[in-house]
Design goal:
The structure holds two protein chains of two kinds. Chain A is mainly beta. Chain A has a domain of about 100 residues: Immunoglobulins (Immunoglobulin-like). Chain A is about 5% helix and about 45% strand. Chain A has two helices and 39 strands. In chain A, a hairpin with a 5-residue loop joins β25 and β26. The longest helix of chain A has 17 residues. By secondary structure, chain B is α+β, with helices and mostly antiparallel strands. Chain B has two domains: about 140 residues, CalX-beta domain (Immunoglobulin-like, Sandwich), CATH 2.60.40.2030; about 60 residues, no CATH class. Chain B has six helices and ten strands; from the N terminus they run αβββββαβββββαααα. The chains are: A mainly beta, B alpha+beta. Chains A and B meet through α1 of A and α1 and α6 of B.
Chain lengths: ~500, ~260
Amino acid sequence: MNMKNIYKAGLIGVCLFLASCAKDKGNYEYRPKEQITVTGIENAYTKISEADRIVLNPTVSSSDPNADFDYLWGIYETNVQGSAPVLDTLAKTKNLDYLVKKPAKGWVLVFRVTNKHSGYSTYFTSNINVVTQFTRGWYVAKDDGTKADLDLFLTPTTISPEGKIENIYSTVNGRSLDGKASLLTFFSTYKSTVTGTLGNTRTLFLTTDKDISAVNINTLKEIRGFNTLFFQAPTTKAPQAVFLGSSANYILNDGKCHSLYSMIANTGVFGIGKIKDDLNSPYYLSQYFLTSPYSDPVFFDQTSSSFLIGNATGSVMTAVSDISTTTMTAKKNNKTLLYMGYKSGPLPVLGYAVFQDKTNPDLKILSQLNPSTTAFNIVNDTLSRSDKLFNATRYMLLDGDENLMYFVSGNEVYSRNLSNRFEQLQYVAPAGEEITFIRHRKYPEAGFNYNYIMIGTKSGSDYKVRMFNKTSGNLDPQPAFILEGKGIVRDVIYISPSMSENTYSNSY
Amino acid sequence: MRKLKVVCFAVALLSAYACKKNQYYVYNDQARIQFGPEESRIYQSSFNLADTLKPFTFYYEDANVKEDTVFFDIYAIGGITKTDRSFTLQQEQVPNLSNAVAGKHYVAFNDPRATKNFVIKANTVHTRVPIIMLRDASLKSSTVVLKFKVIPDQNFLSGEASNLWRKITLTDRLSQPASWDNIATLYYYGKYSVVKHEFLITHTGQKWDEAFLQTLYSDYSLQQYWTGAAKIALIDYNAAHPGNPLRDENNELVVFP
C-alpha cells in the first residue's frame, strides 16, 4: 500500500469517525401499529348555513385493549388564498351536534381521536358543502329590452328544476340592471371582503350591454358594480364580457381590455384599459374572445382587422405574428369578426371564428384558430352562399365534445361538422317563438351530471329554454326539461357548491 | 508514515474542536444602542439595513409650514431599566456633499427641543427618534444631506457598527421618494428625474410622494393601474408633440419600463 492509499484510508477513517457522532434516532418499537377505527361519519355532507345541524354519534374502537380516548372536532375552510386555514374547534366530545354557521363554501370537518393510553392520535375528515338556497340551481340571465335580471331554477335533488325564484337579482338588490343581458360568468377566487376579511368569494358576474354586477353567490348581494369594479371607471359604459384567462380575470368594455392579476393579493378591482401598441393606436375589440384558464385571451381588433393577445399584468397588448403556413394573416386581414369561440383546450386552446370581408360582404369564412404570439395559424374554410352557416345569426361551439358548431339560421338550429362541413337541421322553433340564445354547457357531478345544448326562445314577453341531451352530437327529439319565465333569455348557467371557475370554458 | 499520523491527528483535533459550541456575543455586558428597522421588521434579516436613508422634501407642504419631522427607529440592547435613559446623536460630515447645517436645516442635536426626545423610556427598549427638519429658503434650490450617528455616553455604548448611523437628504424641491428604489426603477417607474416626477403628478393628479408609493407597493393591481396610466399619458404626450418627446433635466428621453 503506497502512501497515497494510506492517506485516502486515513481520510475515510476520519470521515467515519465524524459520522459516528450522529445520534441514533432509530425506532426500536416492534409492537404492531395501533389501529383506531371510526364508523358513523360519511365522506361528505351538504348543509344549509344557519339552518342545518351536523349531528354525529360515531363509534370509536382501537386495537389497544386499554384504550382511553380524547376527542376533538374542528372545521377548516378550503379554497383559501393568502392565508393558512385555521382549524376552528367545534367540540371536545365524542358526539357532535353543531348548528352550521359557516358561510356557504367548501369546508372540511375534522375528527381527532387520541388514545391517552398510548398517546397515539388519528384524524378522520369529511367534506362539508355549506350551501344556501342560492348556491345550487340554474341561473337565467334575461331582460325586457331595457332592464336585466336573474331567474333562479332550484334543483335540490336532481338537475331538473323543482322550483323557481323569479327576478332574484332585483329582489335581493332592490334594483334590476340597466341594459340587455349578455353573459353569465362564475369566479371562485374573486377577492372581496364580504366576510369581513379579504378572501376568495364565489362570485357570479352578470354582464349587460350597459352594466356589470358581481354578486356573492351565497347571498346574491352585489359585491361590486360597474362604477366600483375599476380603479377608475371607464367613461363609456359599454360592457362586452367578463371572463377568465391565465393568471387574471378580464373585463371587455367599450372595445378595451381591462385585467385583474389574480396570482397575488388583490382587492378585486380591475386595471386600466390596455393600449394596443406603444403608439396607443386606436382600436376597438370585438365582444368575442378566445381564452382558457391556462392561456392569455385572444381578441380581434375590428378597427385594424388584427388579432391581439391580452396579458395579466401589462398595459400594452401583444401583437401576433403569422406562422408561414397560415391560410390567412392574423394582422390587417380586412375582415370583420362575426363570431369567435372556444372549441377545446385548455392548452393549447383551439377556437373557431366566422369572418366577413370588409370589401366584399359576400365573402364569409369559417376559420379554425390556433393562437400564438409568434406563430398564429388560421385554417380557412370559405363559405358558399348555399351553406346554411352563411346566413347564420347566432353561433355556438360544442365545448370539447363532438367537432361540431351549432348555429341559428332564421328560426332553425343547425349543426355543422367542422371536419367534413356536413350541415344538419337539429331543431325548428315552434311558430311564434324567436330564438334568442343558444349554448352548450356540461358538468359532471354525481347526482347532478348534465351535458345539454340549450336553446332559448322568446314568445311575446315569455321565454323558454329547452335543455337538450345530445347523441353523437345530435339533439335528442325532446328536451330533458324546459325552463320558462318572463323576459328575453340571453344566457343560462348552472351553479353548484362544488364548482370552480375552471368548470366551464369561458366563451360566447 | 509520520506525516500521515500528523495529518490524521490534526484532522481529528480539528474535528473535535468543531464540536464545541460557538460562543455568540450577545451584547449583554453593558447597555448599547443602535438604529434598526421599524418594529414589525426587526426579526426579518432582509430589513436589517432598512431605513438607513430617508429622503425628505417640503415640496408637498403648504407654504406656511416651516418645519417637519422625520422619524427613525432606535433600539436599546441589554435589557430594560426602571428609569428613562437618554442617548446622544451627533452629526457626521459627508465628504463632497452639501451637508446640513444645524439651526438652519435641522434643530441641532444639543438643542433642548431635540434632546428631550432622545430618550429610551423606562421599561422599554425602543423609541422613534424625531429629527426636526427646518424649511430654509436655500432648500428651494439645493439639496443637503444630514448624516448622524449615535455616540457612546453615560447610558449607552455603541451597538453594531453597521447600525450606528442614519441619513436624510433634505430639499424643498421635488425629490426621489425612498420607495422609488432600485427595484421600482427597474420594474415600475424607470430612472428617476424631476421632469418625470412632475409629469406623473401633472398627468395623474396624484402626489407620487412616499406615502403614495407605499400605497402602490402594497397593492400590485393598483401599482399596475397607475404605471399603466403613466405610460399611456407619456405616449399621448409624445404623440401630441411630434419630434419633441419629453426629455428630463439631463436631456434624456423620459421613458417608463
